[in-house]
Model the fold of this input.
Amino acid sequence: MKIAGWVGLALVLGLAGCGQDKDDVRLEQMSCPAVAVAPYARDLVQWQGNGRDLTDLDYRLRVSDVRGSCTRKPQDDNLYVSATVSLDATRGPAMTGDGVDATYFVALLRKGEIIQKTTFDVSGKFQPNDDHLTLVDKPVVSKLPLSETLAGSDYSLVVGLQLSQAQLDDNRTASRR
Done:
């Protein structure tokens, strides 16, 4: 038998003895939750007055990035998830000041059900002659309890801008175009 055949046989025999032991369960529990941006809460368009023409645009915000990581401490039945949210702002022609304020949320879901939602305020100022601004907030850390029947993959984080009902309706309408 050639060397490749022996290696293949050794692999098959080695894998045949594999089962799920406590270390395997611990690795499964360590899997990080999915992180997503809520589709209709990704964008915020702030208008000046009642107009909806480009000349009435105050500013536009967009959730541009969400970076997540997770850690687990030895002998701890919790998973610690950190998420850093970045927002891109664009100044519109109707903007008279230089400041932009926004509120975003981070919702924690367990098996598809919202178990916690927290809002965070961010603000920034456009530099003179600069129409773009990126806001990066400090990391948001969540502590997720784990058990033999509850793994990190049973959780998910959903991020979005906190919108009024009218803004949410505008985003839904715009997505259909």
Notes: The helical segments are 3-16, 22-30, 165-176.
